[in-house]
UniProtKB/TrEMBL annotation:
Signal peptide: none annotated. This is Hydroxylamine reductase. It is found in: Cytoplasm. Binds 1 [4Fe-4S] cluster. The gene is hcp. The modification Cysteine persulfide is found at residue 372.
């Protein structure tokens, strides 16, 4: 096996015998075979026309190879066989070209495009489940996968990456339309860390529709629902918030799950990444759905009408019974309340206030501190960075990296909290929308705003978001905790020269450089 798609890759250059994430060689090889089958199907589709089934298989196949999603070689092989059958049925040829071999810079650029597409596939999948598909987005998966099999100059690869970044921005917009169309526009809410006594279920991942289905099926059953990780922003959507048994939030970011789930008297439903190999202490409480899978964990399937039967999960919650008494919990910094819901609609509804505050100097700087969390000790940078931001600045945040600081009470500016959670990683769409609106109001470009992006990455959704930001012309992004192993020195240099992208250093130095 060889895999270097995520930030925790072995030795900072590649996992070779087994993944640091727990992915074994059999699964890794099966994922490479699956990727080759998707390339073959995409080439066929481009030449002879797409089918609805092929559209879905390509999106789901790419999503299944995202880090911490699917650890089940059998599930991966089944997907691969289905894709192969679809291609053969349509008369397409197989593809057995290289994925990660060849000239270092070309491997780097090809891998960047592949990993970006894996991230975008996750977003396209969530949007499709809510009935939203977009021809430009779906069509680009065919184009992008086909291009992986073609030879290109470095400039051509960079052109493809920028084109992809724009399409991924459209895909995030599509998912925003899907989520807000189904569940309303998020509005700011305070979410408790307290767990009430009695049976409960924890839901993690990004799929709001899965949460909705479960809320419906647990109505009036005496079972409470708590979000975990990237599901936190669900509380802000009116059509989900209205369920009185959606009570609060449990736990912090994904890398703490083995510790946090150990003694949990409740089952956990994984709707997406990041799933870690479950420890024996809680293996029987892990339930997966959609493209997430782990050998031995109960997998809940979707029927032909798009429904899911969660009765096994519900029975498990009743069997485990929850805590005998209400339980007080806190975040990493000891806070017991989280706020979320500052997506584009909420922020733009107070745009006048924000603009006035910037004009008057009450808000001197806006930071976007967002992205993935992970296990590396260096990620403490983000906690310290936020703690050291001056009182006359605002911190916008999104994705799961925020659990390092979102329970800190950082105070308010002009009635707005200083730390504002815009949502999940895909809500980077909201951040861009707000930035563009501010730039418009001030009659300047985005790069001329008193705005700095300090991002953390771990898996491939961060890759597609980064490419979108670059494609939109956002410059001087600080990225950490380490730079991607799949970016070769030459490719990195091009990104530094063209976009001013730079690695994080220390909170003190970076703040000084930004504000000085
Ligand atoms: Fe290694 Fe990351 Fe690939 Fe897992 S996803 S095998 S940790 S590079
Ligand atoms: Fe987190 Fe896995 Fe990336 Fe959606 S849940 S941001 S790491």
């Amino acid at each position: 096996m060889f895999c270097f798609q995520c930030e925790q890759t072995s030795g900072g250059n590649g996992c070779r015998n087994v993944g640091v994430c727990g992915k074994d060689a059999v699964t890794a090889v099966a994922q490479d075979d699956l990727t080759r089958e998707m390339i073959a199907l995409a080439r066929m589709g481009l030449a002879n026309g797409r089918t609805k089934r092929a559209d879905e298989l390509i999106v789901d196949g790419l999503f299944a190879t995202v880090t911490n999603v699917n650890f089940d070689p059998q599930a991966i092989s089944c997907l691969k066989d289905e894709i192969k059958a679809e291609r053969e049925g349509l008369g397409g040829q197989p593809f057995d070209g290289p994925l990660f071999e060849g000239d270092t810079d070309i491997v780097s650029l090809r891998s960047t495009l592949l990993f970006g597409m894996r991230g975008m596939a996750a977003y396209a999948h969530h949007a499709r489940i809510l009935g939203k598909v977009d021809d430009e987005v779906t069509g680009w998966f065919y184009k992008g996968l086909s291009e992986l099999a073609n030879e290109h100059s470095i400039d051509e690869w960079l052109g493809l990456l920028m084109e992809f970044g724009k399409v991924n921005f459209r895909c995030m917009e599509l998912l925003d339309e899907a989520n807000t169309g189904a569940y309303g526009n998020p509005s700011p809410v305070r979410v408790t860390y307290n767990i009430e006594k009695g049976p409960f279920i924890v839901v993690t991942g990004h799929d709001l529709h899965d949460l909705y289905l479960l809320l419906e099926q647990t109505k009036d059953k005496g079972i409470n629902i708590y979000t975990h990780g990237e599901m936190l922003p669900a509380h802000a959507y009116p059509e989900l918030h209205k369920y009185p048994h959606l009570k609060g939030h449990f736990g912090t970011a994904w890398q703490n799950q083995q510790k946090e789930f150990k003694d949990l008297p409740a089952p956990v439903l994984f709707t997406t990444n990041c799933l870690m190999p479950p420890k024996d202490s809680y293996k029987d409480r892990v339930f997966t759905t959609s493209v997430v899978a782990y050998p031995g964990a109960v997998h809940i399937i979707e029927d032909e009408n798009g429904n899911k039967d969660f009765s096994q999960l519900i029975d498990k919650a009743i069997e485990l019974g929850g805590y005998p008494e209400d339980k007080k919990m806190t975040g990493i910094n000891g806070g017991d309340v989280l706020t979320t819901g500052f997506a584009h609609d909420a922020v733009l509804s107070v745009a006048d206030k924000v603009i006035d505050a910037v004009k008057s100097g009450a808000i001197k700087h806006i930071f976007l501190v967002g992205g993935c969390d992970g296990a590396r000790p260096g990620r403490n940078y983000y906690t310290e960075f936020v703690k050291q931001t001056p009182q006359d600045s605002v911190v916008l945040t999104l994705a799961c990296g925020k659990f390092r600081f979102n329970d800190i009470d950082a105070g308010e500016i002009g009635g707005l909290p200083r730390i504002m959670d815009m949502g999940q990683c895909n809500d980077a769409y909201s951040a861009v929308k707000v930035a563009l609106a501010l730039a418009d109001a001030f009659g300047v470009g985005v790069n001329d705003l008193p705005l700095s992006l300090v991002l953390s990455w771990y898996e491939q959704k961060a890759v597609c978001i980064l490419l979108s930001l670059l494609a939109l012309g956002v410059k001087n992004i600080r990225l950490g905790p380490t730079l991607p192993a799949f970016l070769s020195p030459n490719v990195l240099q091009v990104l530094a020269d063209n976009f001013g992208i730079k690695p994080i250093t220390t909170p003190e130095e970076d703040l000084k450089a930004i504000l000085g």
